[in-house]
Amino acid sequence: MKKTCVTSRGIITPIxxxxxxxxxxxxxxxxxxxxxxxxxxxxxxxxxVTESVLARTQGNYATVEQITKDVMRxxxxxxxxxxxxxxxxxxxxxxxxxxxxxxEKVYVQLSYPCDEVGNELISIEYMDEKNVDPxxxxxxxxxxxxxxxxxxxxxxxGIDYIEYYKSLADNIEIIFSNDPTYxxxxxxxxxxxxxxxxxxxxxRLKAAGAALxxxxxxxxxxxxxxxxxxxxxxxxxxxxxxxxxxxxxxRDAEVFANELxxxxxxxxxxxxxVLVYGDGCFKxxxxxxxxxxxxxxxxxxxxxxxxxxxxxxxKYFADNEYSGLTGxxxxxxxxxxxxxxxxxxxxxxxxxGTTPRRYTDLLGSLCDLTSGSGDRGTPVVLVQGYxxxxxxx
Length: 393
What we know:
The protein is α/β, with parallel strands linked by helices and 393 residues long. The chain is 34% helix and 14% strand. The model is unreliable at 342-347 (pLDDT under 50).
């Protein structure tokens, strides 16, 4: 009798480099793990592959000079406003250095009290103590410091991002506002650096009279002097690789997912699903940081992973329709309800079902938590039993 449902295993692989046979090595690593550790592979298993190793084997990198050249090509070397960047040494510092090299002056507009993904510039409590309305008040740096002083160190990294970003180039000036159009008081050329709200930001800037508006998804959307690129996301999802180079979000992730699925079937006889995943979409309840600094959780996946789970809340039925049942009788009734959820319980299923989140967001978050971002050495995750439920024999 089945006693477990979903399991998630981090699969240890070789350290991947540019040009490696990623799909072949993944299949080899999974088969070796199954053989040596004594677990079976099944139809419906899911293989998650971190976006980092796909981009690395593709050689999808860009240098500061290549980014600078594209910025100069789009803005002509004029002054630019850089609106709503996240506060990150890994995600944004090297990009800002490149932007500053390609512009006469850069006005960096930070949102407050935190950035888009929850990194605090100042605490909400301190902002409230100062009686500041973040949706109505805008600041230059001098005024901001007069109000808030230097209580602007990140609670986890200890970095003062105002000082840190200014230190990257002599032509950087920091301003503060949650209104993207505020930057137009300084320059009419704007690079929108927010991730998930970028399309709205660009619309508002254009409507307010900006002369040139681009997003980070527009920078390196094609190759510049042999650089890596991403036609859909540009610089979004990039990470610092060295002091002068970034790794971009991978290209053709869906093509890779389908190729790996085919190879897994050829080598194991099992029809598995595949997704490429980056950041999971979960929020730290203590620091308030939302993990998703990538443009999407999964840039590529196989067809079965398209959509949302069709699930019932067991606890709801146990407390309502079947509240008078116990033991074996309750178990059998619940299994019958789950098996028949497409017919006789459709109404209740719709009104009392689980939150409709996409398979790829749920699975990508599970994979991200399993693989971690440190030294586990498991850029591949094997998820089993995901499509089973309480009624599955």
